[in-house]
Write a sequence for this structure.
């Protein structure tokens, strides 16, 4: 015995499926500015110095200390002044992984230990890349500067960052 819940001709069935599909489709074709309604996150401002080969290089930095601040970082920015950067602070000494998704400018990514000593540098990280960038060793902080700054100022692993966060 066959039970027929409804009997529709093929054209009517096709029309029913077609209309149902249209009604269930999300037609929110927003432009880039609408899609990127980015929540405003504010950062504390600070200053730090990098001691390298007997020279001191001073930078104005935004400090990313909360989870939300660290997650946002420098994403969605089209430019950054030459002597500026962002300092990411973590509660514990830990392995840190960064990436460049939604970051539109190349960055030098500098990993720092508790004493403010540079442990690893990734130079000119590629904008909008989803490749993971690892600290290689546990760190408590990451400093992001414009791409090329570490080469221009000859900043290297072993150089020291002076900022109140770091201990002697």
């Amino acid at each position: 015995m066959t039970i027929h819940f409804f009997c529709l001709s093929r054209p009517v069935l096709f029309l029913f499926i077609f209309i149902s599909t249209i009604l269930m489709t999300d037609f929110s074709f927003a432009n880039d500015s609408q899609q990127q309604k980015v929540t405003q996150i504010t950062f504390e401002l600070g200053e730090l110095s990098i001691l390298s080969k007997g020279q001191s290089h001073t930078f104005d930095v935004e400090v990313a200390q909360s989870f939300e601040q660290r997650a946002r970082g420098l994403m969605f920015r089209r430019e950054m002044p030459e002597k500026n950067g962002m300092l990411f602070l973590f509660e514990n000494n830990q392995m840190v992984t960064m990436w460049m998704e939604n970051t539109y400018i190349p960055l030098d990514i500098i990993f720092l230990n508790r004493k403010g000593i540079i442990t690893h540098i990734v130079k000119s990280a590629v904008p909008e890349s989803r490749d993971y960038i690892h600290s290689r060793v546990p760190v408590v902080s990451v400093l992001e500067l414009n791409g090329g700054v570490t080469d221009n100022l000859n900043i290297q692993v072993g150089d020291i960052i002076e900022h109140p966060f770091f201990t002697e």
Summary: The chain has one domain: 43-162. The helical segments are 10-24, 32-35, 67-72, 149-152.
